[in-house]
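INTERNAL AUDIT FORM
Audit reference: QA-55
Scope: verify that the stored structure record matches its stored sequence.
Auditor: D.O.
Record contents follow.
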Amino acid sequence: MEIRPTKAEELFLSLAYNRFYDLYEEVMKDDFWDKEPWYLLAKYHRLLQFMLSC
């Protein structure tokens, strides 16, 4: 028996995947570490929020 995601689930998965990798790519850039400490903390906070909400 094959269970396929609905269109709404496909949309959610696509958006979630894209958001995660947008944050990940920004954090992995070398110039990311030159930013202000509050900016670094805010980005990590968003990344952790995202990971814990999935």
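Auditor finding: record pair retrieved intact. The CA atoms of residues 20 and 51 lie 8 Å apart.
Action required: none
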